[in-house]
Amino acid sequence: MWVQDFEGPAGQPPDPQIWTHELGGGGWGDRQLQVYTADPGNAALDGAGNLAITARRETDGTVTSARLTTRDRFAPTYGRVEARLKVPDGRGTWPAFWMLGTDIGRVGWPACGEIDVMEHVGSEPRRCHGTVHGPGYSGLAGGIGSPIDAGTDLTEDFHEYAVAWDRSGITWLLDGCEHHRLTPPDVPGPWPFDHPFYLLVNLAIGGNWPGNDTDDPDLPAVLLVDRISVEACG
After folding, report:
1. Which CATH architecture has domain 2-231?
2. 3-class DSSP state of 16
3. Residues labelled catalytic
4. Taking the domains of the chain in order of start, what are their residue ranges?
């Protein structure tokens, strides 16, 4: 099993041999407000066994946050991919734990495939979303997946968000309980999910997600990542 548990002193960055930062702003395709940085103020260990990804408003009014990725460092093909997270509350928050195909540089998105293990928006505190994107089914209106109503406010505690991913399909789980499954016949196009994918975890702010768009987000907001693991299936 591959595990990242984020133990270490407060202020230390996550393991630089595994995690790199994706940087920049410009809306990220759907009017998100944040600029991603490599500043420890946006992503660092909290000293209590968590990675804290913090979205904040700088003195010049810029909203900054962090997006971390294992691109070119770690990319499994299949497995149970899981993160134990405490998502932030508040207007405009949009944390995500997700995966992209390693061939993105050659074939582009969405041909590389995208697996969203978990997305959560502040306007729906009881819900999380699990989705795939591929050729012919991508974007906010086109991805194939399903939300789950957890029956509790997910911002109040840590929860385990996972997919069990193998050649037959992808199953989404919340706290160990399956909430939906997709197989190749379920999508209206190619199934680009049978090759290596790298991991991403980020905290976006605003954007075009229905009900989440705002010019006045509740900041600072913190996504806590207690553990990320990948275990072989079968």
Report:
1. Sandwich (2.60)
2. coil
3. 114, 119
4. 2-231
- Residue 234's pLDDT band, with cuts at 50, 70 and 90, is low
Give the strand pairing for 114-119 and 93-101: antiparallel
Mean pLDDT of 58-87: 97
Please give the Cα distance from 5 to 167 (Å, whole number).
28
Please name the residue that has the structure tokens 């407060």: 10
Give DSSP secondary structure letters for 44-82.
Answer: EE-SSS-EEEEEEE-TTS-EEE-EEE-TTT---SSEEEE
Q: How many other CB atoms are found less than 10 A from the CB of residue 185?
A: 8
DSSP state, residue 218: -
CA distance 73 to 184: 28
Coil, strand or helix at 20: strand
Helices (H), the chain: 104-107
Q: Among 128, 121, 132, 204, which Cα is nearest to 173's?
A: 128
Question: What does pTM read for this prediction?
Answer: 0.97
